[in-house]
Specification:
The protein is α/β, with parallel strands linked by helices and about 675 residues long. The protein is built from 25 helices and 13 strands. The termini are far apart.
């Protein structure tokens, strides 16, 4: 009811203003065409007296333009309250044309009066031109008001509603990673910062190929970690993309490590000349048979990704237990002299009668292998062979002279965050051979995670690009627990669906929900929807337009809607990222969500890249005569490991046969080897 009263009041005001405007036009015509009115006897004495007095006091009729301007003023005021409409075909060009025509007619109507035309003709032209000009200006004013009042926003893609203020402060500490950004807010671009003040709460970088996740984010993380003196572990899926950056940035920024400069190590199965050697199951870092189980678990699940969803099944656990028993046997045999993965693989491929006899001769392994022992003693040969084959078949892919060479040496240990001896370790994969290499590399990953996640160590970071290409056992636990041990984890992937496919639904969800910092480039589907839900909602303005025959109305409302909808995430430009960061109690960040373009100095990076030096050759296989003996040396190492494994079998069988308590384990007496001692060259 109140609204109707207001509308009626507005209509009265509009009518009054327009009446005043028309009155000025009528008086103007009467004054400046008075001769014509007097000639026809249409003059009014009372009007003449009033207008004359008004002119004497105000001078309003001194110039024709004065009354015209006053008329236009009240006309404009009357147009402000315009509501009705009979057409929706109103455009700015049409308004401009009507206004131009009206101006010409309205202000140019006096031109014919300066000619020699008869008085009647001049008066007719003057009045008609003035009236037509007035009507044209009235129409232009009404249309303009309707367009300004009733047209919807031109924000077609809802950019204004979905833009928001972001962090403009630079917040630094001894651990932070700071990325400069540009963001759009209130119709202009602003400069700001993404401040990862607590990288120890984990970081995920998601983006489709070409979104810029490595170039704009992961590379910057590596550089800033080195500048701040972090010990680093880098999984380089496309070796040596990340390794080259880390090596050269360390050369140019060693100051972050103070008086304890780190050593740089590379593991690369493709080219032994450019690779150090490292034993991932070094007995020094295996304290319990559970460590052997973890190593076995990691290897076999990397070789058989389908087993991840079948954990606990008999034919999944059996090969894991068998390989774990072999690894632990090598750990306790002669103080771990032969505790390497190549020796374990060779031992696994020996006759199962001999292997079971040796393993069950050790009390700490006897119960561990009870299922195999029962099958063996019960004559269930098919079952036993199936269990063994489940381990042998996938592990046979790792039997390679080059893998044996890299994994049987001890150039360095995996305690990369040792305060006295920090390390930067880069492990390279090859997309063409990832099914083979991923198992071995996954073993390095799991061992490193186990070793570095301890108190009292140097600050360190684990950077893994293309995470789904390897199975990283214990990753969720690392993210959840490593914060207090100053271990930062940065994970790169293309899509959450990859993570779910390779890690299983449960573990994938845990990883996604545990990380505190997230960066997302262009990504689609469920990933985009999940991220949109994570970023939350914001109050947004909504407009609606209704056009009827008699009227036109605009409705404006507000509602909660997605701050960054999935459609926006699906169409992000290269280098533009959305995400959220975690803060600290002492370094509070009010606006944790961001949607911005990460600023990268392309010229500076190009100059730096031009100065890069290749990672030097690590191993020299040439003899004094300059002859390259790499193939021969690697082959000799391969042969030596096989011979050592054979002699372990022979010596152990002889020991069992010579022991009255263990002799019963043999179905046939063992023959003494002509050479008891193992060749250890």
């Amino acid at each position: 009811m109140q609204q109707e009263d207001d509308l009626r009041g507005l209509a009265k005001v509009v009518g009054f203003m327009r009446a005043i405007s028309l009155l000025f036009i009528v008086v103007h015509i009467y004054w400046y065409a008075y001769e014509w009115f007097e000639m026809h006897g249409w003059s009014v004495p009372l009007a003449n007296r009033i207008i004359s007095d008004f002119q004497h006091n105000t001078g309003l009729f001194s110039q024709p333009v004065y009354t015209k301007l006053f008329s236009l003023l009240f006309l404009a005021l009357s147009c402000l309250g315009t509501r009705g409409i009979r057409t929706a075909a109103i455009t700015w060009p049409r308004i401009a044309g009507m206004a131009a025509l009206g101006t010409i007619l309205f202000f140019g109507c006096g031109i014919p009066s300066r000619t020699g035309l008869p008085l009647d003709t001049k008066a007719f032209i003057y009045i008609v031109s003035l009236a037509a000009g007035y009507l044209c200006l009235l129409a232009a004013g009404i249309w303009t008001r309707r367009l300004l009042k009733d047209s919807l926003s031109d924000d077609v893609y809802n950019t204004e509603n979905e833009s928001f203020q972001q962090e403009t402060r630079l917040i630094r500490n001894e651990y932070s990673v700071n990325l400069p950004i540009e963001f759009y807010y209130r119709k202009r671009w602003h400069k700001g910062w993404i401040n990862v003040v607590n990288p120890f709460r984990g970081c995920i970088v998601v983006g489709s190929p070409g979104s810029g996740k490595s170039f704009a984010i992961i590379n910057q993380f590596i550089k800033q970690y080195i500048e701040k003196g972090f010990a680093l572990y880098i999984y380089d899926y496309k070796f040596d993309d990340l390794s080259l950056i880390a090596y050269n940035h360390l050369l140019s920024h060693p100051e972050g490590y103070g008086n304890t400069p780190p050593r740089f190590f590379v593991l690369n199965f493709d080219d032994p000349r450019r690779s150090h050697r490292c034993n991932p199951i070094n007995p020094e870092y295996m304290y319990d048979i559970a460590d052997a189980y973890e190593a076995s678990y990691t290897i076999l699940l990397n070789l058989n990704r389908t087993w991840i969803e079948k954990q606990g099944d008999f034919f999944v656990e059996s090969p894991i237990v068998l390989l774990a028993a072999i690894i632990w046997f090598l750990k306790i045999y002669k103080n771990g002299m032969y505790c390497t993965l190549p020796h374990a693989l060779e031992l696994l491929n020996k006759k199962y009668e001999e292997v079971f006899t040796i393993l069950t001769a050790y009390p700490e392994l006897e119960n561990y292998l009870s299922a195999f022992r029962d099958a063996w003693q019960g004559g269930a040969q098919e079952q036993l062979q199936g269990q063994i084959a489940s381990a042998k078949i996938p592990l046979s892919r790792l039997i390679s002279p080059q893998l044996y060479w890299v994994m049987s040496g001890n150039d360095f240990s995996l305690d990369l965050n040792n305060p006295q001896e920090p390390k930067i370790v880069c492990i390279g994969n090859n997309p063409d051979r990832q099914n083979i290499y991923s198992a071995a590399l996954g073993l390095y990953n799991s061992r490193i995670v186990k070793i570095i996640n301890k108190k009292g160590k140097r600050k360190s970071a684990v950077i893994i690009d293309e995470l789904p290409t390897i199975y990283f056992r214990g990753l969720d636990n690392l993210i959840a627990t490593a914060r207090s041990n100053k271990v930062a984890v940065c994970l790169g992937m293309q899509d959450f669906s990859q993570l779910t496919r390779d890690y299983g639904e449960k573990e994938s969800r845990v990883i996604q929900n545990t990380v505190g910092n997230i960066f997302a480039g262009q990504t689609v589907g469920d990933t985009a929807r999940t991220l949109s839900e994570r970023f939350g909602k914001i109050v947004q303005r909504r407009e609606s337009l209704t056009i009827s025959r008699e009227d036109k109305s605009t409705g404006i409302s507000t509602q909660l809607d997605a701050l960054i909808p999935p459609s926006k995430i699906s169409n992000l430009t290269q280098g533009t990222f959305v995400g959220a960061v975690a803060d600290n109690i002492s370094e509070k960040i009010d606006q944790k969500i961001f949607h911005a373009r990460i600023v990268v100095d392309h010229r500076k990076i190009k100059e730096e890249t031009a100065r890069y030096v290749p990672i030097p050759q690590i191993a020299d296989f040439r003899n004094e005569a300059g002859e390259d003996r790499m193939e021969r040396i690697i082959r000799e190492n391969y042969t030596r490991i096989k011979e050592e494994t054979a002699r372990i079998i022979e010596d152990e069988l002889y020991r069992i046969a010579d022991d009255p308590k263990l002799k019963k384990l043999l179905k046939q007496p063992a023959k003494k080897s002509q050479e008891k001692d193992i060749h250890t060259s």
